[in-house]
Amino acid sequence: MHANALGLNLRIGLVAVLTGLLGACATVEAIIPVSHSAQSEAGVQSHMSPGTNADKIVVLPMSAEDLECPVVELQDGAATVRVGGAENSAVRYQFDLVDTARECQPRGDQFSLKVGVSGRLLIGPAGSPGAYSTNVKVIVRREVDQKTIFEKTYRAEANTAGGAEAPFRVVTEPIMLPFTRTKLNDDYSIFVGFENGRNVEIERPRHHRKPKQQASNPAPQ
Fold this sequence. Notes:
Elements: H1 3-21, E1 72-74, E2 80-84, E3 91-107, E4 110-123, E5 131-142, E6 147-159, E7 165-171, E8 175-178, E9 188-194, H2 200-203
Parallel strand pairs: 1-9
Antiparallel strand pairs: 2-3, 3-4, 4-7, 4-8, 5-6, 5-9
């Protein structure tokens, strides 16, 4: 792919990413493989006072279909991370978030949450094909007190194998959280995004130059 075409891709990359995220979280199969855990499992008995059906915990048995899993939200300004100069012609490579997914499974008085993100690596006009990596952060917030109850950084890696772009995927381990009610989206929020400006490891020079030795002054005669 020519440099001009790459520059065009990088210019429209953010628009394409935001457009793709409008339909994010529709399904999890594309990112998180379906497993036996998606089958019906034991939930918890309801001891809540009478209220609306939406606020009641479902009585046994309960499955993932009974839960309203929190929607994955994108952190502001964290859909894209570039390495290189400010101009498109100076970009070495760029990571874009394209899609997100989540999966909630009842586990007694808890539930397990998996979060997945997928995207692409683009090689810029100033870069060269190869393997690159960056950091993706996943945050879960409890809405009742706006407290962060889970936060972890994951490594996203992609290899263009001589080409101009390559996909990447990150899926979290099961995150165990207190089970509140079936409308989990009212009690928890999920945020994902790149750690912009924190790719210190991949930007560190491979070889450090030794400082030049200053010439010693000759001893006075």
